[in-house]
Every structure is written in C-alpha cells, then in structure tokens.
Amino acid sequence: MDNEKIAFCTTCMNRMSHLQQTLEKNIQDNYLPDLVEFVVLDYNSQDGLDKWIYNNMKKYIDEEILVYYKTTEPAHYLRSHSRNMAFRLADATILCNLDADNFLGKGFAAFMLEEFSKRDDIFYTNNYSFNDTFGRVCVRTGDFMAIRGYNEALKSYGYEDNDFLNRLALSGLKPMSFQNPEFYHYVSHPDADRVSDEYMAKNLYKMYISYLNPYTSKILLLYKDYIAEQYTLVANWHLYSFDNMTYSTIYDSYLNEKIRTVIDDDIIKGTWRRNKNVLLIQENDNRYSISEEASSIDLKGLPFYQIEDEDLIAKIFMLLTSAINFNEVWKQMQANTVINPEGFGKGLVYKNFDLSNKIILT
To answer: What are the structural domain ranges in the chain?
Structure first.
C-alpha cells in the first residue's frame, strides 16, 4: 500500500535509564522522515524523564520524528492501558509496540514498511524466543482497533502480550516473525524493574510463602493500604485447559508444553492492622495474630516464611501476576466476554511540553 507510515510506541514509567540508552540510537538507526514516527508516552514518571527528553531529544521533536506525550493521572503502571493510549496517539498506518529496553536495530523500520507493503493480512512479532523483545509487535492501526486493543482487564505483568497476539491471530491475520539477529538487542536489567511500578510491588509491605508440595505454594501478601491477599499458585496444566476451544497457542511456550503456573480460584482477601509489634490479620471468619519480627508464621497449621530478597520477590510477582492474568483470560474466554467493553486507552495527555496542547482520549 502507498503512503505507509510506521509509529514506534514506547510507554515509560520510571524507566528513563533504559530510554537514555535506546531512544536516540533507535531514531538514528531508523531515520526515515515522513515514514517513521517515535511516540513516547511518559506515564507519570517521577525520575526526571520529561527534563531529559526536553534537554536531549527536543531536536527530534522539532524535526517531527519524535512526539512526546505526558499523562499525570496514573498512580501505577498499567501495561495494557498505557500501550492502548500510545497506540491511539500515534499518527501512522502501522503501529509497533517498542519497550523502553529494546534496540530496534538498523533498518528495522524499512524492513517493516516493506513487509507491510506486500500484504495487508499480517502482523509481526519476534521469533517466539520469549526474551525481552517478545513484546515488540507490529500491526496495522485498523487491525489494532478491530480487536479493541490490549486487554485492560489484565492489570499487571505478564500474558497481556500473549492475549493480544492470540486475538490478532484469531481475527484471521497471519503471524509473521522477524529473524535478523540485528533486531534482537535489548538492555539487560533486574527482574525488579519489570514490576516495581505496578500496584502489587509498589504497595507491598510483607510477602510470605508456604510450600505445600513440589508444584503448589501459597502466597500471603500484606499491602501498605492494609489489604491482605492469599493466593495458591499451582504449576499444573490440567486445572486450566484450552482443550476443545479454537484458540491460537503459538505465542505461549507453556501452552505447547502443557504446563503453566496458574492460580487456584479460591483467592482469599482480607485486611490487616498493626498493634505494636503484632500484626492482626482478618480473612473471612479467621483471625490471626503474628509477630511482625518473626521470619516464619503459622496460619491454620500451615507454616509461612517471609520473603525479603528483592530478586526473589520480583520473580514471585512475575509468576503470580502472569497467573492472575492468564486466569482472567480463561474466564473471559469461557464467558465469551467483549474485550474492553467501555473503551480503551482513555485519559488526558499533554503533547510536546505544551500544557495548552491538551488531548483527551475518550
């Protein structure tokens, strides 16, 4: 098709250090004026991202190859919502999600433009290697709108990409993958960076774990807002199966291996409060009193151990939130739920540092 234009959309909440390494390099490696647009959505970052963009990247804004938007509304990072906002703000026929830690590689934009010029029934992602480029997906704007964007019912880390790609495939589009090793570079970083600005991690007060057997664990979370939650994580595929359902599984290696970490439906929610050095937990009709200083506690005869290592906490959060999102998708599929029935990517943004240039996405 003629007059094609591709927009690389990056959402960022407190990941300035990654953009400092990738953004200008990506622009320079894919500098095609009038054919390429880079959209950066500052999702209420508190790390000075706006100042860095203004002081170091304004020349690209002036050249109209970079567009900077900022929203001050979100308290926590919402992957699906932020990506939907960025995609809706882009002015292009082809949209590409580009995580802040990704290097596109020289010539990636030209390659995508050429591929999409050949046919209009495709979308592109990586080669399903599940490294840090897995979230990079290129899709036509019309196809993105047709499937109603990323699923905003998925609030945390994990599986939102799989769900998005599966719905694109189910809509009749042909999945394609880029193979050039030049397109697979990224910034390595701790797992904690992936979840640090999401509600669970940002509001965590204490985390405890109980090991029931080699494939089942219970996770107790106490939040700073005095909410308590208890989840049962199960590494066993037979609990949730897509058998006898028309569903694409090419984007989920766990599906192909017939095993995935899932959550039991019996999620226990409650509250807690502090009384001197004692934590008082209320879960339904059960009340527990535990020492705040204890590294292990007993709940209904089950030993729970406090997790304090930041890397381990991040890994547990990644498993847990991916399982929560997977469970939500499963429930939506069973109920044949419409994705984002009230709309998607809504919010207020300001464009290119101009506070009078206010855009309301409804």
So the answer is: 6-188+340-361, 192-335
DSSP 112: H
∠ CA 119-122-127, rounded to 5°: 125
Give tens-digit pLDDT for 264-300.
877 899 999 999 899 999 998 889 999 999 999 999 8
Query: What are the pLDDT digits (tens) for 292-335?
Result: 999 999 998 899 999 999 999 999 999 999 999 988 998 898 89
105: left (phi over 0), alpha (psi -120 to 50) or beta: left
**What is the dihedral sign for C-alpha 143, 147, 151, 152?**
positive
Question: Could you tell me which residues come within 8 angstroms of residue 92 by beta carbon, excluding any fewer than 6 positions away?
Answer: 5, 6, 7, 37, 141
Q: Burial of 75 by CB count in 10 Å (0-12 exposed, 13-18 middle, 19+ buried)? A: exposed
For domain 6-188+340-361, the CATH superfamily is Spore Coat Polysaccharide Biosynthesis Protein SpsA; Chain A (3.90.550.10)
The answer to whether the CB of 229 falls within 8 A of the CB of 268 is: yes
Side-chain-facing half-sphere of 347: CA atoms under 13 Å: 26
